[in-house]
Amino acid sequence: MLGRKYLIGADILTAVSERLDGATLVLDGAKIMEVGAGIKPPAGADVVDLSGLVITPGLIDAHVHAGTHCAGFPMGMDDTNDMVEPIVPQLRVLDAMYPGDEAWIEALAGGVTCVQTLPGSGNVIGGQGVIVKTKPDIVENMVIRAPSSLKGALGENPARVYSSKNKLPNTRMGSAWLMRDAFVRAQNYRDKKTAALAKGDPIERNIGMETMVAVLDGKLTLSVHCHRQDDIQTAIRIAEEFGARFTIEHCTEGHLIAPWLAKKKINAAVGPGLTSKSKIELRNKTWDTPRILREAGVHVCLITDHPVVPIEHLIVCASLAVRAGLPRDEALKAVTIYAAEHLKIQDRVGSIEPGKDADIAVWDGDPLDSRSKVLKTFINGEQVYSR
User: How many domains does the chain have?
Assistant: First the structure.
């Protein structure tokens, strides 16, 4: 069991308060015990001198495909999509997670300690995601929450996949109908189950419909892949129609409708930014999007969509957002506490505060300077990476 450890002398960016210069961070086992200036380690304490270095919370990437779309594997071994039926809420990323994916080590080298791994966007409803810590281990030991959300997708991807199979959806209308129909079928399933239980009658379980009902009941978030502004609007329209809790994933054209998204109190995961405009719905992609959304009052985190952008470059995405005008403190929050809030796990991770998980990254300079490197990464108080 890990004991108490004193990390002294570093400049600490907590993601919730002002920068603490030359401060001390106290880790007590897997948790943060104390942080501040003037903390004196007792005699005989386990002290690590990090003078001249910078400590941040462990970074959080709220939207990746690590563990399923594995580095160096051929496309035929990609486990992110089962593209046979467009509505598959019963599928679970947990059952496809590969702890041997090199992405986990790359994440640690980039200071990324927590991610949400999601199914891909080939289906209108693609399955259940999972939130994990990035230290490779038995999958259950990595998990923070499973399922974490239900993945939905609108726009080009599902229409392209199924038009080639001569089945719905071929268009955005088809995708919207399939998503809406899945919710209606879930409502009917819930009503039949409620009536059967009231009579004491048996009912045949349907795992997919149980997952959809969890979204209807507000127990599970619907995370909707949508780039273009019309797809964003459709996602919101359908979610509001059924009272579903939801997030917008990618939000590429969100800057074009930012004030409206703010009124809707949208949580947006923006990215991947560090890519080409590889399809039509990305033609308005810009690094200005995070800044414009934040200025309008939209809750924003930044994502890599790994392996679309390698996960170790999450902090680079934050620095490029700063270059486009996003304030520095907001950029750091967008890959720490705001990402934790996006995933509803801010009680555990995302900032350096007493009582939270001891997940931190130690840098040799300003994290938002692309020349800076991660020297050490800690998860649950354990040093899991060292350069």
Answer: 2
